[in-house]
Amino acid sequence: MNTSLNPSPRYTGVAMALHWLLGLMIVGAFAVGLYMSDLPMSPTRLKLFNWHKWAGITILALSVLRLLWRFTHRPPADLPAPRWQNLAAHGTHWALYALFLLVPLAGWAYSSAAGFQVVWFGVLPLPDFVGKDKALADMLKERHEVLAWLLAVLVLLHIAAALKHHFVDRDRLIDRMRPGRD
Prior knowledge:
Strand content: under 5%
Structural class: mainly alpha
Number of helices: 4
Number of domains: 1
Number of strands: 2
Helix content: 55-70%
Strand order of the largest sheet: 1-2
Shape: elongated
CATH superfamily: Transmembrane di-heme cytochromes, Chain C
């Protein structure tokens, strides 16, 4: 339900801030996840695992805020485009939103099943989703990785579509999410 109409051709400042912050955090968490997974056990690897978890929980919290904002603030109208393009854009956006939640939740559950409680920023202990269970941890680790790769593919698709609109279609679609542009 949208409680605020947005006749503007641009997203709100809050939507833009959450979009770019989440984008940077997701790319960063993915890069750290890739890098740390091949490291031998060491203090550096443990530190990176904690950073990765902190980023994941922060992404989860910001994603909930982003969804709440999206449900209460109407985005700009679709640009004139073939129906299939608008359907693909909306489907991709909702799949991204779902993965913004599912990837960190799967990681959190994996950490719980592996017997490592998530302590957000080393201060706030979060409850475990499940008890310690090696077989479940192995399954959840795989799910977390598959979902993260799916998210990475959709992020790249999202970026490619935005660049296509900007450089090929020249329809100024990208300006709707660029801060400071009128």
